[in-house]
Amino acid sequence: VQLVESGGGLVQPGGSLRLSCAASGSIFKINAMGWFRQTTGKQREHVAYITTGGSTVYRDSVKGRFTISRDNAKNTMYLQMNSLKPEDTAVYYCNTAPIPTNHYWGQGTQVTVSS
Known about the structure:
By secondary structure, this protein is mainly β. It is built from 1 helix and 10 strands. Strands 2-10-9-4-5-6 form a 6-stranded mixed β-sheet, with no helix packed on it. A 4-stranded antiparallel β-sheet has the order 1-3-8-7, with no helix packed on it.
């Protein structure tokens, strides 16, 4: 299984981005999936995850701003990020959740929020 993240970029504070996570296999059909992020010098942290049934969990700092969704038929997961803040700047990764699978980590996609 390979996970490929995309959709990152440079955005001004208050702006929006939509991240995508595409899987090469049918991982989405049998696993809860989530988004994680990491900044230089810090540990990777959980951002949000979604179960196979569609239930969602968010870290407190992104509640009301980020929305996670999945399309099992397309083996794709999304993270809609609105009202972005400079502290959201990080490399974003997708993986199984809430416990990530070590050998599934991909390259991630860089999100930079700056004026």
